[in-house]
Design goal:
Strand order of the largest sheet: 3-8-4-5-6-7
Mean pLDDT: 94
Largest sheet: 6 strands, antiparallel
Oligomer: single chain
Number of helices: 8
Strand content: 15-25%
Structural class: alpha+beta
Distance between the termini: 48 Å
Radius of gyration: 19 Å
Number of strands: 8
């Protein structure tokens, strides 16, 4: 298997396992990678032989300690690149993911650590996702979904769970970007849509949108 293919599998298994807390089914992985379950099965058998995963057909797949270490390294490189592209090179948060998908395969810890140092060792990327440190540790947070917000409280936007270009552009349109401060005015009982104020403007968002925005109470 090509190293890029191995890394893509490990990264996606890590994400689908909710940061390595659950087993991943072949079908979930096939859907995520948009390939056939048979192709996934063949790849997982090879990854099992390489001792990156534990794979059992009737059980599913989980990362080994070595697989987890590799996956966290890939995630770190990806999110450092996203942050560098946005913070230092001026790319929009809807642009950085696809570019970082290519750059994440440059396996040079000295380079990645230097980029992180230049930026002050950020703990979160432009989408609010936590960046593993050089030892693979991830900072814990008290973030919640905006859909769990309470009326009259103030919140700061800390991240999103939907990285699609359409969604990120929608948030930019309403200025609901990382760091934006908002106040909850009303939560509609009928559909749980939220009326909020952000930068002195009133915005109405659906519960579907609120489910995809991560905030911190302030």
């Amino acid at each position: 298997m090509r190293i890029e293919t191995i890394e893509n599998y490990l990264k996606n298994i890590y994400h689908l396992s909710s940061n390595n807390t659950m087993v991943v089914s072949n079908q979930k992985l096939a859907d995520k990678l948009a390939i056939s379950p048979a192709s996934v099965t063949e790849a997982l058998r090879k990854l099992h032989e390489l001792k990156f995963v534990v794979y059992e057909k009737s059980y599913g797949t989980r990362l080994t300690a070595q697989g987890t270490k590799e996956a966290l390294g890939i995630v770190r490189r990806h999110r450092i690149w996203e942050t560098y592209l946005a913070k230092e090179l001026g790319f929009g948060w809807h642009e950085v993911h696809e570019i970082a998908e290519e750059l994440e395969h440059i396996k040079n810890d000295k380079l990645i650590n230097k980029l992180a140092q230049i930026m002050g060792n950020p703990a979160f990327d432009p989408h609010g996702d936590p960046i593993p440190d050089a030892k693979g540790k991830i900072m814990k947070s008290n973030f919640v979904k905006l859909s769990e917000a309470k009326v009259n409280n103030q919140y700061k936007v800390m991240g999103v769970t939907d990285h699609s270009i359409a969604f990120l552009k929608y948030l930019e349109k309403h200025q609901l970007i990382i760091g934006a401060v908002l106040s909850i005015k009303t939560i509609e009982e009928f559909d749980n849509s939220i009326i909020l104020t952000c930068k002195k403007k009133e915005v109405i968002i659906s519960n579907k949108v609120a489910e995809r925005i991560i905030v911190e109470v302030i």
